[in-house]
Amino acid sequence: MIFFDILKLALRNLREAKLRVALTTIGVVVGVTVIVTMVSFGLGLQRNAVQRFKDLDLFNEITVTGQDVSELVAQVFNRGGQGGGGEGDRRAGVRRTRPQQPEQAPKRALDDAALAEIARIPGVEAVEPTVEFTAYVRANGRTQPQSIGGALVPNPASRFKSYAAGHMISDPTADEVVVDSRFISDFGFAKAADAVGQTVELLAPLGAERNPKQPAAAPQDEQAKQGSKQQRKANEDELSFFGLPLGDDAETNAQDARLTVRTFRIAGVLKDEVESGGVGRQARFRGLMPAARLYIPLATARELSHQYRDPLNEVALQLARESGALSAQQAEGYPSVIVRVNDPDVLTDVRKQLTALGFSSFSIVDELEEIRTFFLIVNSALGLLGGISLLVASFGIANTMIMAILERTREIGIMKAVGAEDREIKLIFFVEAGLIGLAGGIIGSLAAWGIDVVANRLAYRFFLQPRNVSFINFFALPPYLWLGAIAFAIVISIIAALYPAARAARIDPVKALRHD
Amino acid sequence: MSEALLETRAVSKHYQMGATTVVALDGVSVEVREGEFVALQGTSGSGKSTLLNLIGGLDQPTSGEVVFDGRSLAPFSKREMARYRRHAVGMIFQNFNLIPTMTAAENVSLALAFGGVRGRARDERTRALLERVGLAERTAHRPAELSGGEQQRVAIARALANRPRVLLADEPTGNLDSTRAHELLSLLRTMVERDRLTVLMVTHDRELAARFADRTIQMKDGKIEQRMRDEG
Ligand SMILES: Nc1ncnc2c1ncn2[C@@H]1O[C@H](COP(=O)(O)OP(=O)(O)O)[C@@H](O)[C@H]1O
Ligand SMILES: [Mg+2]
User: Does the N-terminal or the C-terminal CB of chain A have fewer CB atoms within 10 Å?
Assistant: First the structure.
């Protein structure tokens, strides 16, 4: 008997018991719906996470760290001591907490020569040093200490691509600034567009600009935020020593003649979505770059960061120069730079070269394998839930098939009498079960797709839209998922039919055909 | 001996019923030649159906062997047995054993499907078979819409679907009135004469046996009692 005839027979048998078959199929539908919905949610999470990584350039950027001045000092003055500089030195350094500490301590400072060398590594598209400092910022009639970062202009990274209003700083020497959305709210602008074109002033003590090599105190260093109260107190003492009018009434004294003011024009307001690395407004990183409220052209930022250097750091620099570890002509290195490669595939090679040059590096790709494993576990757990419901459905299939045997005993006897082989009897049952699995799989996948669509709509309507977030698809429904689910449903159904089919094939035709 | 199309050699069939053994057949040897119409008679429980099922390949004997066309069925695998049932013999029963949810044509077509006949050839052969048993007009009827005589004709058409040489009939007229019974046996007789079909038929009815069969085999308590040779 050809398969087509078996198929016709199976379809006919299913039609004969419509209600029972429908109920059995519903069991499969539920199982498949649960599997596909769950796993599509897990895959959606994964896709969104990976997409976010891509958006943040995390697949083609590397953070490179070099020796900073405090490490240089530690090396010189603690030579022969036990194990170099203590943790205290490290804390005093300008380095900020990174997502991950590099495995290897850097052996070289990231000075301009080093940057040029890095730029020559094949595959490197851009080298963007990390420059950041904190300064009192005045805008829209308010004055607040804010973190300020340097940005390469023009900038190839996606962190400077999307703007709520305005655009990127127009050229490397422009007195322009881009700000983030938190800046907008902190400085009381109603909306992003209102800020574009407005003036931002960075305040510095009068002496600072005239003599950049002299210790210049930042009004409030970021270290103070992390540090103990004592340190903050110390800072404030120093500040009052330098005669800076600081404190609660800072805004009222904004026009004080002892302050120098550097003026910038707001070119653009960055979109929030590019931030990461923290919860909500506490974002600490923009891609691999430490997050700042304002970004100004790199060279300007570099220059200003020296003015805002904290005293501890200034001491470290002087010590380094006195010891000869850093010559008078030699500029101190950047704490870190972000290296952008033109292709994620060359990232590993570039990192090897960076290590060879004596730098430490970090890239999110290191974590990628763990992220994959994490999602594999999540998706398996979600799939398992669905698998269990499908398992329950398989008992329904087995039950339906056994009922069918009882009803069709005579029919099976007749088929055997006219020459059906055991194999063919079994096949009819397998095809019937397979059809139930197929129907359940298709309907279940469609139902899961429907749930995905509805859940996305609801999430958008009641969760995202009120928060002014654009539509996000929380689910991923790749063909392999629903095709796999359908195949799985068919396989489970056929397995459920193994016993009933074997029992049907064993039917004794003599008994089946006996008429009383 | 060698001309026999169908032969049983000392066939016995025992059924184990708990502690007791029921001897349904006890060393039965019969021969049927090609083109013969043989009646099998005996009281109820004498083992007629059991013998027919063994010859039809639906069951295996406890001892002895069934030989068809010079070949013993004893060494046949299950699969070969299915082929044998499909192509060598056709069976009909007292209660017709048609599939109630299928039309006359579908019942016949099913047997052809198992015989590997497909497509138009199958449709054509189905029609020809139903025409041959006088049911050309009834092909689309389900068993419940047909009389007993008509149902048995459908059963005959189905039994002969894959051109077997032997038709095994277990009390085919048991559920028919005498007029329908006569009609049905005339049909079988015609097939024996015209197509050299071989018929082995179980019947209670001495009169019918005497009238349509070439000879009658008498059974009692699982054994052959006597051989009767009617005209020839
Ligand atoms: N499956 C079976 N199990 C036990 N005994 C059976 C079975 N089939 C038939 N028999 C017994 O074998 C004997 C012969 O039965 P059967 O061939 O049906 O007789 P007949 O068809 O001549 O009326 C009877 O006594 C019957 O009870
Ligand atoms: Mg009987």
Answer: C
